[in-house]
Amino acid sequence: MISICDRFIFLDDVQISPKSFQVRNRIPSANGGFKWIGVKEDSSMPIVNRLLNSTSLSDPESTFERIENTLKSSYLASSELENVLDSLEHNLKLDSTLAKLNISLISSLFELLGKPFDYALSSESGVNGHGSDRVVDLLRALNCTEYVVAPGSLGYMTGEDIWALSGLQFLVYNYFPSPYPQRFQFDFLSHMSSIDILFELGTKQAKKNIFGSNFELTPWIPS
C-alpha cells in the first residue's frame, strides 16, 4: 500500500498496543503455521504513557541475538541473510525509540527494493486531538484529497459523521499476494513479514513479486 501513496503518514505518537504489529511480525514456522519475532519495549513507565516515539527498546543487544538466532535457524541458506542482519543490528543498537526503529526498518526495506517513498510524521504535524477527528485533521493539514485505507481500518471509520463531512475521497486497498515457495510449508502462508519473501526469493525476484502482485482499490462511502 505504501508504494501507491503520494505520501504515507506514520502515526508515530500513538500509544503502544502490546502484542500488536507495532512490536512484532510473523514468519513461517518449521512446525507448520507461523511464529512471532519481535522486540520488547521499556516497561519502566505505565502502559498508558508509552507512546511509540517516546518509548525505547528493552535490552536491544539480547533482542538482536534472539532474533538473529531465530532467523538463522529458518533462513541460514539465504543470500540476503547477512545484509538484513547487519541492518537490523545497526538499527536495534541505536539509541532509538520504537517509532524510529519501525520507520527505519521499513524505509531500509523499500530502499533495498528500489522503491523509496515520501512520508510524514504525525508528531511533526502540529495536529492534536484523538481518533477519527485527528486523522481527518492530519489529512487536511497535509492537503490530501484521497485517503487509502486497509480493510482492517474500516472498523473504526464506520458510523462516524466526521468522515462523511470531511470532503475526502476514500479508497480501500485490497492486496492479493502472489504465492511463492516457502520452506516448511505445503500451503502458502500469506501476509508474513516481508523478510520472508526477501529471504526466499532474493531482492530481485522479491521486488517483482511484491510490486507485481494484484491489488484492488475500492471506493468507500461513509455511512
- Domain count: the total is 1
Into which percentage range does the β-strand content fall? 15-25%
Helix fraction bin: 25-40%
Question: What is the count of helical runs?
Answer: 6
Low-confidence stretches: none
Shape: globular
Quick one: biggest sheet?
Answer: 3 strands, mixed
Alpha-carbon distance between the two ends: 24 Å
**Taking strands numbered 1, 2, ... along the chain, how are they ordered across the largest sheet?**
5-6-7
Describe the structure.
- The protein is α/β, with parallel strands linked by helices and 223 residues long.
- It has one domain.
- Helix content is 35%, strand content 16%.
- It has helices at 60-75, 81-92, 98-112, 131-141, 161-164, 194-212, and strands spanning 8-10, 24-28, 34-38, 119-121, 146-149, 169-176, 214-220.
- The strands form 3 sheets. It has a 3-stranded mixed sheet, with no helix packed on it.
- β5 (146-149), α5 and β6 form a beta-alpha-beta unit.
- α1 (60-75) packs antiparallel against α2.
- The longest helix has 19 residues, at 194-212.
- The radius of gyration is 19 Å and the shape is globular.
- The mean pLDDT is 92.
Summarize the structure.
With 223 residues, the protein is an alpha/beta fold. Helix content is 35%, strand content 16%. The strands form 3 sheets. Strands 5-6-7 form a 3-stranded mixed β-sheet, with no helix packed on it. Strands 1-4 form a two-stranded parallel ribbon. A two-stranded antiparallel ribbon has the order 2-3.
